[in-house]
Structure formats: C-alpha cells, structure tokens
Amino acid sequence: MAESLGSLLSFPPEQGVSIGAKEYDSKIVAYIKQLNQIPSAQWSSAVDKKNILDVLDPSINSLPYLYALNAQASEDVDQDGDRLVAWVGHATNFLQSFDPVQLRYEGGQWYKFLHTVLRIHETQGTQNVDAVISAILRLDPTAGTFTVWHSRIVKLCLAAGIPSQALPILDNNIFAFPQDHVKYASEDVVSDPTNLSNAYITAKSGFTSRINSEMVLEYYVLGAQIYLGLGNLDRARLFLEYILLSPGVQHAVSALQVEAYKKWILTGLLSEGQSFPLPKTISPSIVKAVRASSKAYDSLAESANKRDWKKFQAEVDRGNDIWNDDGNAKLVRKASDALLHFSVNDLSKTFVALPVSRVAAHLDLPVDATLQILASMVSAGSLQADVGGQGASAVVRFRAKDTQDDGLASTEAQTERIKTLAVYIQDADRRLQLTKEYIDNQKRQKLFSGPDGDPADAMDLSYDAPTMADDDVGDEDIME
C-alpha cells in the first residue's frame, strides 16, 4: 500500500485551493477510477507498519478511508476480540467526520459499509445508534429522499427498545424516491451545494437497494407506532394518512393499510375523543376493505362519539383478544382513559363551575372515583380547573385556557414547514418538466395553440363517474 499512498493523498485539492463544481466533479471521478484499480487485498496491507486507517484522515481522505474500511471488514467484522473493536473504532470515527460531498460519488461503497455497521448493531444488541443516524443526516441533511436505511433504522430502534433515537429520521418529511435519470436531460452536478439529495441518491447511484411500496408503507406504520408511543398524535395521524391514501394495484388493499386504519381510529380517540373523519380523497374501495376487517374498532369509535363510556368499556372488554392479537391493547386502554377526560372537558365548554356530584352523574361513576380523575387531570395539565371541598360537597371550577402562545408557536412552525415545502415543490416541478409525458403534453399544447386553436382542445375531457361508498368518505382517489 505504501506505493499507492501518493495517489490516495492526491485528492481533495489542498486547503485554500478553490475549484468549481464541474471541475471538482471531473477530478473526483478520475480519482475514483484510480481507487478502483487498487486490489482489495492491498487495502489491508501495512504502511510503515501501520494500518492504512491510522494513516488517512477520514475527514479529508474520506473515499480511500471508506474503501479500506470495507476491505478490512470482511476479515474483522465476523471475528470477536481486538480486531473487531479496532474496526468499530475506525468506523465510528468515519461516521462522525467523513466529507459528505465526497461520499455523494460512492453510493456502492457507502451501502456496503452501512450494511456492515448495522449488522454489528443488530447482532451485538447495541443501545445507541446516534452515530449512524448522524452519518445518514450528514450525507442527506433533509433525510428527504427515501432509502432502505430509513426503514432499517426504524426497525432497529424498535427492536432495541430505543424508539426515540429514530426521531431525527422520522421527523423529516419524505419528498422524493430514488429515480432513474431522465434520458436526454443533462445530469445534475453531484457536488453542487444547491442540490437536494435526490440529485445524488438515485436508482442507480448505489446508495439504496430497490424500493417497493410495501417497504414505504411499513416505514410509515412503524413510524406512526413510535409517534403513538411517544405521544406525538399529530405526527402519527399524518403518517397513518399517508398509508390510507396510498393507491393500491388493481384496487388491492394492503394488510398494512388495514393496520393503519385501526390505529387511525385509536389515534382519533386519543387526540380528540372521537374518530377522525377519513381523508376526502381516500378510495372508496379501500374504505370498504379496511372497515370490513376493523368492525370492532368502528364499534369503539361509535361509542366514543356518543360519549357513552359504559358501552365503550363493554366494547373494550368484549374485544380483548382482538386488541391483544393486533398489538393495540395498550392504546385501547389509553383511549378508554382519554374518553373520560374528554367527557369532563366537554363540561368545561358549557359550565363555569359544577358540583363534583353532577360530574360523577355525567360520567356514571362514583364521586370518589370522579374526584381522583379530576385531580389527575389537573395535575397533568389536561384540565384547567380548581377542585375545592371534599366528598359530595366538592365543587370543580373551570378556568379558560390561554391559547395565545400556543397559537403563535403553531403559526411560526407552519410558516417554516411551508417554506421548506415550497423548495421541494420547485424541485419536483423542475424534474417533472424533464419527463417524456410532460414534453409530449407540451407538444400537444403547442399544436393546438395556433391563431385559431384552443389549448383546451389538447385536453382529455372524458369523465368517468366514481362509484361512491358511504357518505362520509368524500371524493374518489384521483390516483385510481
């Protein structure tokens, strides 16, 4: 390896030497060709009696460092002891310091390396994947182009009992999937700092294996499960909505969509004390299929919507085996408690003060049990009220909730989301204009837009009336 060290250190240019994106692109492509000519065994040979990984700087010589890690992994990773510990140390150093621009050019090596790292985490039962997640975000700060690593990280965190560690990935919205390069269109300069991640994470760049619809749906189901466990009901609802709106092949419904519908109902009960309305653009065929498999959950929602806690509890007891088989027993119990809380909060919208005995009668519970519920709600901050007195003479006085600060924070957060979304939409529009379908449409528009032409003549004005299901479903899915 000593004879190749000079070529390994020939890139990147010395600090202070500035080159443009296109020149950088041509230089690094030539450099990678040199790296690929080095025999695999040579990456494990010593340089002045040192491991090449101890000679190279991962923050500067990121590509040769990655090549060496992958070459040495085949020898070290499947062995216990000092060699494995040493390799993991080098890998961690790389994860924390590699140059993300250089890595944009070596998806295949990145894929091989990350697979090895996660295999070690999975077999060793690690309790910390922060370094891996930070590295994924170093390569793609938006985490917005979906890859196999999105799904694998979420699974790993759930299996290891550390679901919150997946949040830096889950909290970022997916805006793109790896695509093939559009024929005849000029390719993006990979090193261009203005590029979004879908410019270099493509179907053929090697950063991910093939993506299919089931993988994406599973990612959102597991993500929703994590958000439900952590109490982020808004984000859980968004993930479940993605799943329900996913178009099926020939109107087929995925088992993951059935699971999502069940959790959709429970999320509504936890969030608002009643079932969420279904998205307006959901396919009627999907609604029919998921409801046929979720009748017990619909019965829960019906009782909750009527604020009939006794009937709700009876439905809970009757469906115990169902909730356990579905893995939703804990959520159902939480929904039962939430229904009591929402029933109390309903009273606060009408009354300023009430005897606790009246509240107990409304809930159909003993006074002592009602006092305990009120005390726990006030303590948790879910009820703005004061409870005075004891026993049957106790009185609850409701206070108005100050929502001004919450509203301001929500508005600011929404503004930031809109700004980010606008960037993604602009990129999607630009890529759409490169597709064959768009170009063909533009040709038709031009053909019919002469002096006497009407652009509308180029449009397909045929209309197929949708077959609607229940009244609360809304419009048919435009994807069908």
TrEMBL record:
Keyword Cytoplasm tagged: yes
Coiled-coil segments: none
Domain PCI: 231-401
Matches recorded under Pfam families: COP9_hel_rpt (PF22788)
Keywords: Cytoplasm, Nucleus, Signalosome
Acidic residues bias (residue ranges): 469-480
One GO CC annotation: COP9 signalosome
Matching InterPro entries: COP9_N, CSN3, PCI_dom
PANTHER family the UniProt entry points to: 26S PROTEASOME NON-ATPASE REGULATORY SUBUNIT 3/COP9 SIGNALOSOME COMPLEX SUBUNIT 3, COP9 SIGNALOSOME COMPLEX SUBUNIT 3
Protein name: COP9 signalosome complex subunit 3
Organism listed in the record: Dissoconium aciculare CBS 342.82
Phylogenetic classification of the source organism: Eukaryota, Fungi, Dikarya, Ascomycota, Pezizomycotina
